[in-house]
Amino acid sequence: MDFEVTIGLEIHVEMKTKTKMFSATPVAFGAEPNTLTSPYDLAFPGTLPLPNKQAVINAIQVSHALHMKIDHELHFDRKNYFYSDLPKGYQITQNRRPIGSDGYLDIDVNGKINRVEIERLHLEEDTAKQLHFPNYTLIDYNRAGIPLIEIVTRPCIHSSDVAAKYVETIREIVSFLGVSDGKMEEGQLRCDVNISLRKVGDKQYGTKVEVKNINSFNYIKIALEYEINRQKELLTKGEKIIQETRRYDEEHKATQSMRLKTDAVDYKYFPDANIPIIKLSNEFVDNAIKSSKELASAKRSRYQKDFKLNDYDTNILLSNIKIANYFDECAKSSKHYKSVANWIISDILAILNKNALTIDRFEIKPQTLVNLIDEIESGKISNKIGREIFNYMIANHVDIKTAKEKLNITNQQSDDKVIRALVIEVLDNNAQSITDYHAGKDRALGFLIGQVMRKSGGKVNPALTSKIMIEELNRRK
User: Within 10 Å of residue 248's Cβ, how many Cβ atoms?
Assistant: First the structure.
């Protein structure tokens, strides 16, 4: 029996703002529990919420990136429910009129474009964080009130691969825009999955099951595959799917039932009387869009078209916004784009991974790397010497000049007459290698160049040495 999978996703993105959604309380990850709260976050009597301007700008920028219609009026509603992580007893959200609506995102999976339709993007405030222990639960209200955007797709995704790639692309968009770091492990991006199966050809959707709070891109695919197989097995046996909320168990790599969902929850939404309707001018919306940072998709096109980088290099550089920013800084003052990419990917990332560092904490700044690469590309030093300098700089925390002095390195010899004299001397002393070269033995050329490098103490320009060596060899046929 064949089944069609239908998936809808709800993604909560915690935004990177200085203050909370409706108060001036600071936002900081990792602060001591319950130290970043205020009467406004807890809705004490006499307090009034004031929407965060930057959060609105962020929501507009993400909506634009997702090709959404942007509402020029801000309407806020109260979502009423009583739970320990909601200190107010209600959540301020946008139910009736989300700031973004009717968008889409095209997802490339294995060369096939899949369009994911996005129903809405709305602003709201986050809830408190619960810390569960065997016999009790603690609550940290620092998170309560942090600005969120919730992005809701239509039930239009039909594979776990597309779903996982969609979530990764949303993370890429929000991180490159700078509205969020999108770190799932820190709760900055949280994903709820709705999934149902129906027989191929049926028009009515199957019973929907929700899997909540998946906190890893890898787990999204694993949880979906498990749930698809679980539902297939039940339907094949003729059993019914129960409408319920499940969670993903990381240890057993399986979904587990949390609670039944027999009826829709009535949150008794109503307009928040403390926040009047806010009209956004065309100028405000346009400026928010114009101030958007460059998306990864635009960078990808630029890297490949303007810098002639291949897919592998491009994908590595765009795997992290900070790595892309480092490369972009280098590209501002260097035309050796491929060399810059190679140094970042092969040398710098290896050091960062070994020392558990991020590239913004790497001590060799972009301009210093560019200066070192320029010396190599201009022939002043060899690639080998360049790496010796690079490693010495890192080990001893010095600049290029000091490293060269300490290593007793001078610029490469590029004088044609000096190099030619060395080449002639080596050829005069290695008649057999000349014969081997003309007999087609390629290793002979490498040996002869190596002899010149040894005589010069490695200080001759290798490219120029190779050129002169071939010229002199051809004269001795």
Answer: 23
Cβ neighbors of 18 (< 8 A, separation 6 or more) are: 26, 27, 54
Integer Cα distance of 425 and 125 in angstroms: 78
Residues paired with 7 in a beta bridge: 157, 195
Return phi, psi of residue 136, to 5°.
-165, 170
**Dihedrals φ, ψ of 422, to 5°?**
-65, -40
DSSP class of residue 476? T
Task: With beta carbons less than 8 A apart as the criterion, state whether 25 and 178 touch.
Answer: no
Please report where in the chains the tokens 């993400």 appear, as a residue.
62
Q: What pLDDT, in 10s, does the model give residues 346-384? A: 999 999 999 999 999 999 999 999 999 998 888 788 888
**Separation of alpha carbons 139 and 141, rounded Å:** 6
Is the pTM higher than 0.90? no
Residues in the chain: 477
- Which is it for the CA torsion 395, 399, 400, 405, positive or negative? negative
| Cα dihedral across residues 383, 388, 389, 394: positive or negative | positive
Instruction: Kindly write down the DSSP assignment for every residue of 401-451, as one continuous string.
Output: HHHHHHTT--PPB--HHHHHHHHHHHHHT-HHHHHHHHTT-THHHHHHHHH
Q: How far is CA 451 from each of CA 129, 261, 423, 435, rounded to the nearest angstrom?
A: 68, 80, 9, 16
Residues 6+ apart with CB under 8 A from 345: 313, 316, 317
146-168 residue pLDDT tens: 999 999 999 999 999 999 999 99
| Residue owning tokens 């049926």 | 202
* Nearest partner of 331 among 319, 344, 320, judged by Cα: 344
In 3D space, the residue among 142, 117, 120, 113 whose CA is nearest the CA of residue 129 turns out to be: 142
**Parallel, antiparallel or unpaired: strands 90-93 and 278-279:** unpaired
Relative orientation angle of helices 462-475 and 416-428, to the nearest 10 degrees: 50
SS3 325: helix
Yes or no: say if 103 and 65 are a contact pair by the CB < 8 Å rule: no
